[in-house]
């Protein structure tokens, strides 16, 4: 039985972090994109990461950052993985000494195999709906756009929720799922019951 990995993204509060860890999240996402309502400063992120236990991966999300900003964050926050959510080149994502995910913003016409091939050093490809403001929009995309094999671990995101995640995992069989809006009561404010229900939905699909 495969255990689909779970990332909860866009945490801003200690209580939400504890809820995600207790529910069984494998990874926590912190948003370092200042226009986002889920943005956390490096100082705040450093406080939050003190609550993350061993074997839960801390992922830092960036959108077309200046390299100096990523380095500044890394001096303060013990990130274990980076996630690039804009139109960064592969070269811009490399060189920080950490594995990284590249987000593909899914819309009709995208050639995902070609997209993945242009990021050969990405540890995985994260599929998200194409939305204004880059991500975290709670929008699903057409899962039929996903080809059979990307040759890389694939992370499914975009509008996942406790209601649809079981069906999504059964249909797409991703390596991992990533959620933000679907476990929130307001942007950046997570709901412990929704997080627990989301994790249970994934486990139901895993069988
Ligand atoms: O969360 C944000 O505000 C955000 C801003 C800019 C780029 C990406 C952002 N979030 C990405 C995610 O939280 C997830 O990786 C993914 O997009 C799922 O979001 P959702 O559809 O809200 O579950």
From TrEMBL:
GO molecular function, one term: phosphoribosylanthranilate isomerase activity
Known pathway: Amino-acid biosynthesis; L-tryptophan biosynthesis; L-tryptophan from chorismate: step 3/5
Keyword match Plastid: no
Enzyme nomenclature, EC number: 5.3.1.24
Sequence ranges assigned to domain N-(5'phosphoribosyl) anthranilate isomerase (PRAI) in this UniProt record: 6-200
InterPro entries referenced in this protein's UniProt entry, alphabetically: Aldolase_TIM, PRAI_dom, RibuloseP-bd_barrel, TrpF_fam
One Pfam family matching this protein: PRAI
Catalytic activity: N-(5-phospho-beta-D-ribosyl)anthranilate = 1-(2-carboxyphenylamino)-1-deoxy-D-ribulose 5-phosphate
GO terms of biological process kind: L-tryptophan biosynthetic process
Top EC category: isomerase
Family, similarity comment: Belongs to the TrpF family.
The protein's name: N-(5'-phosphoribosyl)anthranilate isomerase
Originating organism: Azoarcus taiwanensis
């Amino acid at each position: 039985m495969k255990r689909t990995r779970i990332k909860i993204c866009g945490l801003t509060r200690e209580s939400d972090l504890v809820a995600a860890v207790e529910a069984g999240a494998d990874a926590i996402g912190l948003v370092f994109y200042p226009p986002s309502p889920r943005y956390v400063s490096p100082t705040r992120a450093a406080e939050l990461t003190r609550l993350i236990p061993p074997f839960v991966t801390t992922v830092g999300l960036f959108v077309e950052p200046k390299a100096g900003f990523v380095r500044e964050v890394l001096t303060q926050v013990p990130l274990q993985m980076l996630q690039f959510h804009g139109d960064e080149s592969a070269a811009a994502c490399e060189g920080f000494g950490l594995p990284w995910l590249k987000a593909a913003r899914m819309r009709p016409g995208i050639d995902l195999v070609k997209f993945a091939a242009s990021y050969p050093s990405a540890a995985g490809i994260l599929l998200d709906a194409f939305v204004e403001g880059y991500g975290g929009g709670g929008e699903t995309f057409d899962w039929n756009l996903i080809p059979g094999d990307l040759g890389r671990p694939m992370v499914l995101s975009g509008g996942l929720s406790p209601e649809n995640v079981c069906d999504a995992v059964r249909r797409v069989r991703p390596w991992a799922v990533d959620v933000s809006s679907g476990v929130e009561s307001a942007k950046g404010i997570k709901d412990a019951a929704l997080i627990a229900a989301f994790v249970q939905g994934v486990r139901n699909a895993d069988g």
